[in-house]
């Protein structure tokens, strides 16, 4: 098993260097050799994508959100978060970005849509028209 701090340092880095991505790919190959692989249908990512990201207020979710915001191929990000007494999701995400040294101004992107819902409820607890929009446009789902 790789040291957790080695993986975390790659995930928490603000740098998008090729060397780090290459190192992460190497670690994945090294530690997944014994995992059986069954090829599925070949899928390609559309040139532009809409993403549904859950948990963007958390430690891992905020890193995913920062990466998605900087990706020009991502045209819409639906950030689905639970209601919290700690305040609205945009405020909690901004606090997480500040704590991690991420670019808080990126949260002003027009492609970012914060949604409050509940993954345990029917249609994520969203109004029907919003659920329909998200489900029709979403190409990628990231659960963090």
TrEMBL record:
InterPro entries for the chain: FAR_NAD-bd, NAD(P)-bd_dom_sf
Residue ranges of domain Thioester reductase (TE) in the record: 53-141
SUPFAM superfamilies in the record: NAD(P)-binding Rossmann-fold domains (SSF51735)
Pfam (any one): NAD_binding_4
Record's protein name: Thioester reductase (TE) domain-containing protein
Organism: Sphagnurus paluster
């Amino acid at each position: 098993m790789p040291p957790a701090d080695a993986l975390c340092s790659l995930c928490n880095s603000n740098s998008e260097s090729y060397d780090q991505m290459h190192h992460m790919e190497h670690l994945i190959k090294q530690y997944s050799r014994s995992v059986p692989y069954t090829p599925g249908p070949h899928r390609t990512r559309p040139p532009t994508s809409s993403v549904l990201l859950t948990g963007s207020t958390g430690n891992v979710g905020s890193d995913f959100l920062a990466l998605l915001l900087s990706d020009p191929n991502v045209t819409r990000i639906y950030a689905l978060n639970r209601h919290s007494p700690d305040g609205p999701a945009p405020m909690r995400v901004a606090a997480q970005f500040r704590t991690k040294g991420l670019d808080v101004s990126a949260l002003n992107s027009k492609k970012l849509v914060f949604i409050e819902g509940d993954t345990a409820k029917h249609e994520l607890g969203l109004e029907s028209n919003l659920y329909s929009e998200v489900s029709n446009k979403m190409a990628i789902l990231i659960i963090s």
